[in-house]
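Entry type: protein chain
Record version: 2
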Amino acid sequence: MPTKPLERKPEWLKIKLTTGENFKEIKSMMRSKTLHTVCEEAKCPNIHECWANRTATFMILGDICTRACRFCAVKTGLPTELDLQEPERVADAAVQMGLRHCVVTSVARDDLEDGGAMIFAETIRAIRRKLPLCTVEVLIPDFLGREASLVTVLEAKPDILNHNIETVERMSDRVRSKAKYSRSLELLQRSKRIAPNIPTKSSIMIGVGEEWEEVLATMDDLRAVDCDIMTIGQYLQPSPTHLAVKKYYPPEQFAELKEEGMKRGFKHVESGPMVRSSYHAHEQVQSAAATQA
């Protein structure tokens, strides 16, 4: 049933629209290589800025998700696509864009035995072969808790292992489909145990009905599993049928959350109304590396 929006969006949520040559070129390239981006499929508010700067987050394993999370605009249903040549096309696109940092994510593929882990691994390896100086970040689903799938991805040696916890524990079952708060923490913890030298990252969106103290508690939970990087952004309702926004947080509260996160020991915290998991991803990696050094 449609949910009523909270109120008119505040001034600080205005989106800068840029449709110059870089934007047009990237859009054309994605279509020509039959590739999907989370920028388009999830209706990311930063698409114009990022594409104008020649950065994009590739979404592999098709554009139909087996889950129906109440915050997400990606199509849901029964996927039919499994393209074994997709890793090579992603790598070719990364070369054509001249990327220094490449982010690869996917829809949830609960229909596949490994959840799509093999395609993730092959995509990492293809980018390494064709663009050796490019760092690779993967934003993975929870693979229904299968450790073997996580191992498959980690053995390909991504530079960043990202898995989003999305929201606070109390709201998790209401906001997410099939995913579990405890399972997400377990995945991040396992990643550190299996590959301690690969930094981990997670993200939450706020404004879905959480309390301030619950956001701080989520920070504590992420630090308890040694998560290195955290991103925090404002939830925006992608359509009237999705979860309604309960609160718009002003920029100064995002700044306060960044301070709280850094006090807790994160190597980097990206926090702002328009921040999404992959927003300024390259800068996040550099900042975390400098902190670690």
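Comment: DSSP finds eleven helices and ten strands in the chain.
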